[in-house]
Structure formats: structure tokens, C-alpha cells
Amino acid sequence: MTAINTIAEEGPIAEAEALNDRLAGLDLAGRLSLVSGLGGRVVFTTSLGIEDQVITAEIGTHRLPIDIATLQTGRLFAETLSLIDETESQYDIHIHRFEPEKADIDAYAAQYGLNGFYESVEARHACCGVRKLKPLARALEGAAIWVTGLRRGQSANRAETPFAEYDAERHLLKVNPLADWDLEAIKAFVSANGVPVNPLHARGYPSIGCEPCTRAIKPGEPERAGRWWWEQDETRECGLHVAEEAAAIAAQ
């Protein structure tokens, strides 16, 4: 990073730090209301997981001006696809679907094979890049604020998740309004408010991604242990929340 870029980013970084402090003292509804009123386009990306459903419920119930988008990767569980329609109906909202480009899928399959992600970390990252990161870039075009369902309790890799941070690769504010919520609080909210959730959660899937890359977890395993379970790296991610992966997509 050049000195000029460092100076240019001091403003957004300070803004994110100040927002982080403000969000810490609010409940979820207050956090989302504050963020939706800051100006500029706000986009919430949902994977339809239980924590994301809590955020969607608050946006829909309070009619907040926050766009909701999901990455329809082409390899999602049937239960996840059904939940998209159910959620739209219950809250009278529209969830924007962003799909991978056919040319990208074909190029991936030609190089690695359709299920080549099992063979190497490189191939798995490439698949996530095609099916998730590139569609995410389209979903966030023109956005000033990106809202996510990240929580500190999801994995050791996310234990320091702030309420707000500056995403230097995408040049926007990233807000994580559920950062301090644990899974029990999430479940209590869902039960009290009749929030529709993926039936796979009741079958041992606390974290749900693409069907070929997700398994039920075993007793005592972390929430995200069922994602890319064949890899040994305990901090494994798809790249959506990893700066280096975002930079690589931007370079393309």
C-alpha cells in the first residue's frame, strides 16, 4: 500500500471505528436502523443460515431500506432454495439472486473437473471464487455498506469480529450486527418471533453452504466444522470474508 492510499483510507477506517463504538450500545433493531440511515446503498448478503434469517426478519418486519441478496451458487441444498421463497413470502420482501457465470463454471470444470474442489485447496478456492466471490462482487456494486451475519462464536477465526470495519479491498463499510450474539440467543429470537429456518439445522447442520461441501457436525465440534471438512486448516473460509481473496477477484 502506498503512502497516498494509507492517508486516503484513514478517514474510512476512523469512520468504521466510530460506528463500531455506536453499534456496541444498541440492540439488533437499533443497529440495523442506524446503519440503514447512514446514507448510500446498504446491502445485506444472506446464506439463509439461522443468523442471517434473524437479520432478514428484522429488515422485513421494520421495512428497513436495506437490499437483501443471496449467492445462488448452483450447488445449494434443495432446503435452502425452498427457504428463499418461504422467506420472501413471509416478510413480503425480494431477495436478489446472484448466480455464477456459465463461462466461469465451464472454465473451472475444464481445468479442475466439476467436483475438483475435493482434490486440492487451490481447486476449492477457485470454485468458491467462481461461485461465490465473483457473484458477491456484482451484488455489492454501488454499495456503501455491506451487512453480514458474521458472529464471533462461529469459529476461532471469527472470534475478534467487530460490529463495523472498513473493507479496504471493496472500499465500503462492513457491518456485522450479530457479532456479539451466541447461538442460544439466535435460537431464542427465532423461536419467539416465528422466523423460518432451514430444516437442515435440526439435522446437525449449524452452518450450511453448498451441498457437496457441507456435512453435519459431530458432538463437540465447532459450528463450522462441517464446511470443507476434508481440509485440515481449522481457519478455512470460502474467501468472502478474507481480504486477499477479494483482492484477487478485483484484479480479475
UniProtKB/TrEMBL annotation:
Gene Ontology terms describing biological process: cysteine biosynthetic process; hydrogen sulfide biosynthetic process; sulfate assimilation, phosphoadenylyl sulfate reduction by phosphoadenylyl-sulfate reductase (thioredoxin)
Cofactor binding annotation: Binds 1 [4Fe-4S] cluster per subunit.
GO cellular component, one term: cytoplasm
Coiled-coil segments: none
GO terms, molecular function: 4 iron, 4 sulfur cluster binding; adenylyl-sulfate reductase (thioredoxin) activity; metal ion binding; phosphoadenylyl-sulfate reductase (thioredoxin) activity
Phosphoadenosine phosphosulphate reductase domain: residues covered: 42-216
Keyword Oxidoreductase: yes
Residues the entry annotates as binding [4Fe-4S] cluster: C127, C128, C210, C213
Gene3D superfamilies: HUPs
Keyword entries, A-Z: Cytoplasm, Iron, Iron-sulfur, Metal-binding, Oxidoreductase
UniProt-listed Pfam families: PAPS_reduct
CDD domains: PAPS_reductase (cd23945)
HAMAP family referenced in this protein's UniProt entry, alphabetically: CysH (MF_00063)
NCBIfam families given in the database record: APS_reductase, PRK02090.1
Family according to the record: Belongs to the PAPS reductase family. CysH subfamily.
Protein task: Catalyzes the formation of sulfite from adenosine 5'-phosphosulfate (APS) using thioredoxin as an electron donor.
Listed name of the protein: Adenosine 5'-phosphosulfate reductase
The organism of origin for this protein: Rhizobium laguerreae
